[in-house]
Predict the 3D structure of the following.
Amino acid sequence: MRRLPAVLSVFTLFAAAAAAQMYPSTWKLAHPDAKALIGVDLRSLRESQAGKSFGGEIDKAGAGMFHVPGMELLNEIDQVFISSPGQKMADTKGNPPFLIVLTGHFASEQVKQLFGRPYRAYSTFDLYGSAEAGKLSVAMLDNMTLVLGDEPSVRGAIDRSGQRPAAAGELLQRASAMAKDHDFWVIATVPPSAFQPANTNLGPLASDILGLDAGLSLREGLRFELDLSTKTPGSAKALSQQLAAMVTLAIASNPDVQEGADIVRKLEVGSEETRMSVKLALNQEEVDRMIHTMKARQNVSSVQPPPDDKPKTIKIVGLDEGVREIPFGPKD
C-alpha cells in the first residue's frame, strides 16, 4: 500500500507530460493568458495543389515588389503561430499585445539584414527592430525559431523558452485539434473588439460576438468552417442573415461569372440558439477550375488597352457665357 502514492505520483507526472505534448513545443512561448490563437501551416499551403498553382506567380510578384536585403528569410518560414491576450483595460491606449512565433530555417545574417542591428540584449538574446512602445521587436531564439511582437511580449517568450511545456489548457487543446487538419485556423474566446487596433471600430454587430472558431484547409480540395458564439439568439440570426444577404449580392453582381456563383451557392450559412455557422466544401476538381478562372481573369486584366489618340474635350457647364469646352489629350 505504501507504493500506491508513488505510483499515483508517477502516473500524474506521465499524464501531465502527455498533455503537454499535445501541442508543438514552440507553443509554450504563447501568452500564458492568451484569449486568441492563430496558426498558419505555410509549408502545407505551399505543398498543396493550390499552392503549387500559385506559388511560381507569387514568387515572381514578390521578386518584383521587394528588393530588401534579407527578404529571402520569408521563404524559409514553415509555421506561423500568433497569440494575444487582447486589450485588458478599456482605457488602455495603443494596440493589444501580441506575439508571433515563426518556425522554419533561419540564418542570423538574414535577420540582421532584414531588421537591422540589435538595439539591446535581453537575457542571452539580441533584440532587433525598435525599442519604441508599440513597435515590432524581434528575437532569434535559435536557427529554427523567431519571435516577433511588442517588446514585453517578446521578453515574456524569451523567459518561457527555458521552461518546460505546461499542460494544455482548453484553448491549446482546441487549437491542437484544429491544427491537425487545417492549414489556417483561428480560435478566440473573447469579442473581436478586444483585439482591434487603436483608433478603429469594428461596428456594433461585432460587439455581439463572444468568440469564434474558424479553419481553412487546402489539403484535399478546399474546406472552410466558421463557428461564432454570440450574446443572444437574435445576434446569431442577424449575423447569418447579413452574411446570406452578402452572398446573394455577390451572386447578383457577377451574373457572368457562373462558376464563381456556383461555388458561392455552396456556402452553408445557418444559426442555432447563440451560434452562427458557415461551411464550404469543394473537391479538388472544383478548386482547380476556380484557380483556372482566376488566372484567366488576371491575365485579361493585365493586358493594357492601346492608347486612345483621339482628341478629347472637357465640358464646363453653368458659366455665364454658357457651356465651355476645353480640348485635352496627347500633344502633337
